[in-house]
Structures are given as structure tokens and as C-alpha cells.
Design a protein that fits this description.
two-stranded antiparallel ribbon, 2 helices
Length: 73
């Protein structure tokens, strides 16, 4: 790059919160997939996993674990 600003299409994966850059003139299946349960785009890595685990659920599980560990001492 020559240091000049540019714009690029991106989306955030609904399952892992990764930012995915969409190449110019890319076919939809080259960019990842689409979660039909959440109606949101997902990255190629999460598409290969094949299960729907929303990022929000992962955060809630981490918070619950933290609260449990704090309560245990």
C-alpha cells in the first residue's frame, strides 16, 4: 500500500466476532456463510464448524463462569 486511505467492504462474524474483509467482486460463498438461525453472516472458519453458537451466548457463559468462580472464592 502507498499509505493512502481506502475503503473495503467488511462484516463481523455473528459466531466469533471476527472482522472479515470481503474481496472485490467475490462470490458470496467465498466470504463465509450465512447463519439461518440468526440471519447474520458468519466467517469461513465458523461455517466449517457447522453449528450455531452466537457470540453473545459465549460471552454469557464466560460471565456465568466468572460469577461462579467468584462465589466459590
Amino acid at each position: 500500500m502507498d499509505g493512502r486511505p481506502f475503503s473495503q467492504q467488511t462484516f463481523t462474524c455473528a459466531h466469533c466476532n471476527r472482522i472479515v474483509v470481503v474481496p472485490l467482486r467475490a462470490k458470496p460463498d467465498e466470504c463465509g456463510g450465512f447463519c439461518m438461525l440468526e440471519f447474520k453472516p458468519i466467517c469461513p472458519k465458523c461455517q466449517k464448524i457447522g453449528t450455531c453458537t452466537p457470540f453473545e451466548k459465549k460471552l454469557e457463559a464466560m460471565e456465568a463462569r466468572g460469577k461462579l468462580l467468584a462465589a466459590i472464592g
